[in-house]
Description:
Elements: E1 10-12, H1 15-20, E2 23-24, E3 33-36, E4 39-41, E5 43-50, E6 55-57, E7 60-66, E8 71-76, H2 80-83, E9 91-101, E10 104-114, H3 118-129, H4 139-149, E11 155-156, H5 157-164, H6 167-176, E12 179-183, E13 186-189
Amino acid sequence: MADIQRRQIAYKVRVSDILKGDYVRKEGWLPNSILVADKEVSRINLIATVVTMPEQELNYFYVMLDDGTGKITARSFDDILARSKLSIGDVVLVIARPREYNNERYLMPEVIRKIQDQKWIALRQAELQGMPELPKPSVAQVISIIRKYDSGDGAPYQQVIKEVDAEHLVEQLLKQGEVFEIRPGRLKVLE
């Protein structure tokens, strides 16, 4: 009997978890995911506020969502966002798959529904309060990652940014002189 792939659980997460978690690309039919608190999350259950009107860009629709911990774009290649008749300020429940393109995270919604009852929003906040947030990278972690990827000719800037997801810390280290560019796009720690 052939293996039947089950629908993955739509985990309740924050936007900050989506943006900070490690993105895991899978081969074949396995879904890509984001690591959140040691779980591979390939479907997301999010409550957020619509902060831009849905717009069409070339071949897809998009809308910006904000849950108080960060902002993320929801993109749809069908007309789910257009049909949902969203307005700025609407609170919505979104079931979506996390995606990444050119180091930008976004959501591909499967379901998007307006929430009228404020009790659902309060319940979600209470549920997420007990969840630990992902740790933010420190300057020391950035330096250790630069050293990890430096094989003598400097660490690739884009690789460091991708791993730490904290470009502002790299820029801070460059300004302070703790790190320098040995050549364009290659970082080295000042020893």
